[in-house]
Write a structure and sequence with these properties.
By secondary structure, the chain is of the alpha/beta class. It has two domains: 70-101 and 350-465, Aspartate Aminotransferase, domain 1; 112-348, Type I PLP-dependent aspartate aminotransferase-like (Major domain) (Aspartate Aminotransferase, domain 2, 3-Layer(aba) Sandwich). Helix content is 48%, strand content 14%. It is built from 20 helices and 13 strands. The chain has helices at 3-10, 14-21, 25-37, 42-45, 59-73, 114-127, 135-139, 142-154, 166-177, 192-201, 213-223, 247-256, 279-283, 312-321, 323-326, 333-348, 351-369, 390-402, 432-452, 455-465, and strands at residues 91-94, 97-101, 159-163, 183-187, 204-208, 230-235, 260-264, 292-296, 306-310, 382-388, 405-406, 408-410, 420-425. Helix 8 runs parallel beside helix 16 and helix 18 crosses helix 19 (432-452). The protein starts with a helix and ends with a helix. It binds pyridoxal-5'-phosphate. Pyridoxal-5'-phosphate is lined by residues 165-167, 170, 191, 193, 235, 239, 264, 266-267, 296, 298, 306.
Length: 466
């Protein structure tokens, strides 16, 4: 039978006649026919949902726009996403100008260290720029194991696992370990990655007041019994305020309430303790007292990635189940080799740690003398200068840039609306002269800005803050 035959036979049926009579031709007829047979319900013939709204109408975009209009109204330049040239150290280059840099966390100058760069280049020659697979399958390299062995030894732990991002390390570890019937009690200033990890786990998550172990105890007293497992999470040194918790007290509390303790050493590795081993060295504590040591490779170690050190069972569980590890590529050869080389420099050259300490203390001392509010900063690697309202903070950043200083504002939502500040990252590479002159300029500019802020600006800010 040919198509022609089919056509001629069909042309004689009532169906073809119906098609000719139906508005919409063949498609319309098919729809009416299906309706008549009951195979399509009437609602399915019409679009059920309105079209998706444009992204620009989402609340988050609208709120960004509101902030942008306020910034434009006050003539503020966007301080974020400024492009810099070359390697950032105590000096940064922006649009061809050299600036004294306080905006990056290369605390011991290891991103400037020739041995670190050489190790990364040699790793590319040997293993390429990527391991091109998850470590679970073909991505495992001997250099991963070497880095993990040295990090584990550093904490006296059984084992260690390195992830491709510090942020993913916290999310994956907390998200995997904790379950809906469990309890997470974390410092209210914990980094976003830990907060997201807690959400992912669906455990009950309760904040305790910043650096307030009495409040931590109260939360546990009221909630511990209702949950199966419990995890206390804190940072070794806080990235926004530059202060640190009483680790001895946290250990004592975690033992009494039957909890695990996880400490995020992102900003304390290479910074705290006489030889830069971090918060356990600062407190003279056996690191095995802490159940989970988390850290990043991106700060002191001049690389990219994160790590967990702990006992063998914990690490094995993460190796086979942590989503950001199993379902992600292995750490790249240059990042692995750079972190390993940097760790070795840190271990062999504690003088850098002493220099950083002296610089941090000098910054805080000078700032206090100049009447600046450095809040609770302990004078290590992070020193905030409290400004208060966000417009002033952005304006101060702008003025500092004009005067050759690179330091960025921290504004809402990273901190509460009225707690905007400029955050200074101090490194061992800053000179005392750079620190002294920076503090002097900050104090001058802050005073000028306060004098010039108009009544109109203050009123607008009050409206925006609502
Ligand atoms: C306390 C803390 N934890 C984790 C992270 C995430 O680390 P990374 O930037 O290496 O992904 C950061 C990053 O700034 C941090 O400050």
């Amino acid at each position: 039978m040919t198509n022609q035959d089919l056509g001629s036979r069909e042309s004689q049926t009532p169906w073809t006649e119906a098609v000719e009579r139906t508005p919409g031709g063949l498609k319309g007829a098919a729809r009416s026919f299906a309706k008549a047979l009951g195979t399509i319900r009437p609602a399915e013939t019409e679009p059920k949902y309105k079209p998706a709204i444009p992204f620009g109408e989402l609340h988050i975009f609208q709120s960004m726009n509101k902030h942008r209009s306020v910034a434009n109204m006050f003539g503020l330049k966007n301080p974020f996403y400024r492009a810099h040239d070359g390697r950032l150290g105590a000096i940064a280059v922006h649009e061809g100008r050299e600036l004294v840099n306080f905006a990056s966390y290369d605390y011991l100058g290891l991103n400037q260290e020739p041995a670190v760069a050489e190790a990364a280049k040699a790793a590319i020659d040997e293993c390429g720029t990527s391991v091109s697979a998850s470590r679970l399958v073909a991505g495992e390299r001997m250099m991963h194991r070497e880095l993990e062995r040295e990090l584990a030894d550093f904490y006296g732990s059984d084992a260690c696992l390195v992830f491709v991002s510090g942020h993913a390390t916290n999310i994956s570890t907390i998200g995997l370990l904790m379950a809906p019937e469990d309890l997470i009690v974390q410092d209210e200033l914990m980094h976003n990655s830990a907060i997201v990890g807690a959400k992912l786990s669906r455990a009950t998550a309760i904040n305790f007041r910043h650096n307030n172990p009495d409040h931590l105890e109260q939360v546990l007293r009221e909630n511990r019994e209702k949950h199966k497992n419990a995890l206390i999470v804190a940072e070794g040194l806080y990235s926004m305020d530059g202060d640190f918790p009483d680790l001895r007290r946290l250990i004592e509390i975690k033992k009494r309430y039957g909890c695990w303790l996880m400490i995020d050493e992102a900003h304390s590795l290479g910074v705290m303790g006489k030889t830069g081993r971090g918060s356990f060295e600062h407190f003279g504590i056996d690191p095995r007292e802490v159940d989970i040591w988390m850290g990043t490779l991106s700060k002191t170690l001049g690389s990219c990635g994160g790590y967990i050190c702990g006992n063998r069972d914990l690490i094995e569980m993460l190796m086979y189940h942590a989503p950001g590890f199993v379902y992600s590529v292995g750490l790249s050869p240059p990042a692995t080799a750079a972190a390993l080389a940097a760790l070795r420099v840190l271990k062999s050259d504690p003088a850098r740690v002493a220099k950083l300490r002296a610089n941090g203390h000098l910054f805080v001392e000078e700032a206090k003398k100049a009447g600046l509010d450095t809040m609770t900063s302990a004078g290590y690697s992070v020193v905030p200068v409290m400004v208060g309202d966000p417009v002033r903070a952005v304006r101060l950043t702008d003025r500092l840039l004009e005067r050759g200083i690179n330091a960025l504002p921290i504004i809402h939502p990273a901190v509460p609306m009225k707690a905007a500040r400029i955050r200074f990252f101090i490194t061992s590479k800053h000179t005392p002269e750079q620190i002294r002159s920076t503090v002097k300029i900050v104090a001058e500019e802050l005073a000028n800005i306060a004098k010039r802020q108009s009544l109109m600006e203050r009123a607008t800010l009050a409206v925006v803050a609502r």
